[in-house]
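Review this:
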Amino acid sequence: MTDTSAAKVDGSALTGVSETALLTLQVRASEARRRDSLIDDPMAVELVDKIDFDFAKFGPSRRQDMALRAKGFDLYTRRYLHDHPRATVVALAEGLQTSFYRLDASDVGHEFRWLTVDLPPMIELRGKLLPPSDRVQVCAQSALDFSWMDRVDDSEGVFVTAEGLLMYLQPEEAMSLIAACAQRFPGGQMMFDLPPSWFAWWARHGMRTSLRYKVPPMPFSLSVGELAELTDSVPGVRAVHDLPLPEGRGKVLNALLWTIQRIPVFDPVRPVWTLLEFG
């Protein structure tokens, strides 16, 4: 009998915020295994099976939020790539997302380029787990080290994703990253997600997903109104779009999502998905 555990890759090098990549991967893979899955993500399933890690520490993995987030980021990235099929997608703090492989299997062609920017331990782990592609480059550094911008070919368009990143930065760091992207990539777009202020407060004061796992602090959040003001406060931001979440599974959930995203009274308490246009 073959010992399959010997072939697994150790995931214990990821700590702090980087460790959340394992949590989101586990939830995405759990969703992808369902017959009625919200996303088709066979690579996520393969990665979970390849990684030697105590995923049970995160608590229940049967939840839709991370799959909905991946589905939404895929949707708007695809829209940009339909109009700019040779563009470069820059995935900041990509973690163990498998977005490139999902998009490459979709209807956007195979000419777009990809740049993964993440810390060295994450880049090393991705290198052990993911199949290589001559269209994927990596930068083993913080997204706040703006030298990664020198690696971006913006001649055919740029779409920057900050999926699950900005909330873990200090406010001045997050705003400096947005401002730098706006200045450097006119004509490009940037998409990011942020929790509501009450959720960020809870994370800063010890939110847990299980008795063994405490969520890292989230210093940064913006309300819908504050995001709308970015066109006036950040040079280079031409338009701000407050994006609706894609449909999930279940009539009650979808009715709730529809309601909180369309009635202004809920704006201060709901998460935001934002698309910025630069120009």
Remarks:
- The chain has a mean pLDDT of 94.
- The chain has two domains: 4-58, 65-195+220-242+270-278.
- The longest strand covers residues 237-243.
